[in-house]
Design brief:
The protein is α+β, with helices and mostly antiparallel strands. The chain has a single domain (about 20-150), classed as Glutaredoxin (3-Layer(aba) Sandwich). The chain contains 5 helices and 4 strands, in the order αβαβαββαα. The protein has helices spanning about 1-20, 35-50, 65-75, 100-115, 135-150, and strands at about 20-30, 50-60, 85-90, 90-95. Strands 2-1-3-4 form a 4-stranded mixed β-sheet, sandwiched between helices. β3 and β4 (about 90-95) form a beta hairpin.
């Protein structure tokens, strides 16, 4: 009986620790100065709140991450696809600055107190089918090369 009670107590502790975690998705680019500012802020925030899990998505060189950002952004009602984008709880926000940081902090604190599902739970069945900036650049480069040889 004590063994079962001990297992139940350990399970409850583990479940409460898991339930207290907050998942934040950060979409950034290695070539974006504002993204580096946001990344530094999120690293500090994660140190301050150990139950905050920051999931980083590099979008410039990974078209699937770009499509994930666009799909999640649309699910949250974002009108623009740009980096940095942060999605946590009920908040989806782009840009940097003190006002943005305060909104992120407030939403993280609210989620830690009340609980929030993963932003990925808002994903629709299908991801948005869009070309990433990298894919657009590649298509344009191929078109220029083809046109060069056709015109020649």
């Amino acid at each position: 009986m004590r063994k079962i009670l001990g297992i139940l107590v350990l399970g409850a502790v583990a479940l409460s620790a898991w339930a207290g975690q907050v998942e934040l998705h950060f979409f950034g680019s290695a070539t974006c100065p504002d993204c580096h500012v946001m990344k530094a802020f999120l690293e500090e925030l994660a140190q301050e709140y150990p139950d905050l899990v920051v999931v980083e998505h590099e979008v410039t060189f990974n078209p699937d991450n770009w499509r994930l950002m666009v799909t999640l952004g649309r699910a949250y009602g974002l009108k623009e696809e740009k980096v940095p984008t942060v999605i946590v709880g009920n908040l989806a926000i782009t840009g940097v600055g003190r006002a943005v940081e305060l909104q992120i902090r407030e939403e993280v604190e609210r989620c830690l107190a009340q609980g929030c599902p993963s932003p990925l739970e808002r994903l629709p069945e299908k991801k948005a089918w869009v070309l990433s900036p990298l894919e657009i650049a590649l298509v344009l480069a191929v078109a220029v090369v083809v046109l060069f040889f056709v015109i020649r």
